[in-house]
Amino acid sequence: MTVTAPARRPRRYRLLPLLGAAALAGPILGGLVLAGCTSIIPGADRDPPQLYELRPARSFKANLPRIRAQLLVEIPTASASLRSSRIAIKMQPTRLDYLVDSEWTDLATNLLQTLLVESFDNSGRIAGVARQGSGLRTDYLLKSDLREFHAEMYQGAPARIRIRIHVRLVRWTDRDIVASRTFEASALLAGESNDAIVAGFDTAIGGVLNQVVEWSLRRMHRESRRRAASHRAGR
User: Fold this and answer.
1) DSSP of the chain
2) Are 102 and 180 part of one and the same domain?
3) 28 and 85 share a domain?
4) What is the pLDDT of residue 101?
5) I want to staple 189 with a disulfide (CB 3.0 to 4.6 A). Which of 38, 131, 159, 178 is the partner?
6) Same structural domain, 170 and 158
7) Residues 100, 29: one domain?
8) What is the tally of structural domains in the chain?
């Protein structure tokens, strides 16, 4: 496992005057010939990062209600440090670093949106689910805020993954919040390699996704029954 601190502000470079650049063209080209395939672009010779993805939830409780409603899932909000494809790690409680040469396949917030959509779909208990902006007619909107999504590698303490997300279920017709709740999960790491860290993320996110899907389905079912009873009483 290799970590790096958040990237610093890039260095400013002065551009060469046109005549000066032309005068230097010969020596530069000669240097390139001697250097073979070495690039003059900073970082161009680095190997591409190893990409990792996480799996959606696939196993749910058998007694979940079946919902005749459709749901749109928003991209979660998050702090700037988590709106990134880099894999966050904390060596100290107040310091955030990132794994070197390893990244998620997408921004963490986009990745979570995809996992939520696929997890709801895997439950087989909802009429339809899609990302917001897909054009799907909807009954509910799932809004969320990703608050923790990192590995903790504190000295003297067991290494673990920590994930915390706050969820709001919103009725589409009047944008009223039906219910809200915070979900969190952690998973102990089996090692300190990048693969072991990602495996811990996969375990922890699976627990969070299960909780969010099952809670949301039950809340939508309860809301549907309440509205049906109110409709009957108003006749």
Assistant:
1) --EEPPPPPPPP-PPPPHHHHHHHHHHHHHHHHHHTT--SSTTTTSPPPEEE--PPP----TTPPPEEEEEEEPPPEE-TTTSSSEEEEEEETTEEEEEEEEEESS-HHHHHHHHHHHHHHHHT-EEEEEETTS----SEEEEEEEEEEEEE--TTS--EEEEEEEEEEEETTTTEEEEEEEEEEEEE-S-SSHHHHHHHHHHHHHHHHHHHHHHHHHHHHHHHHHHHHHHHHT-
2) yes
3) no
4) 92
5) 159
6) yes
7) no
8) 2
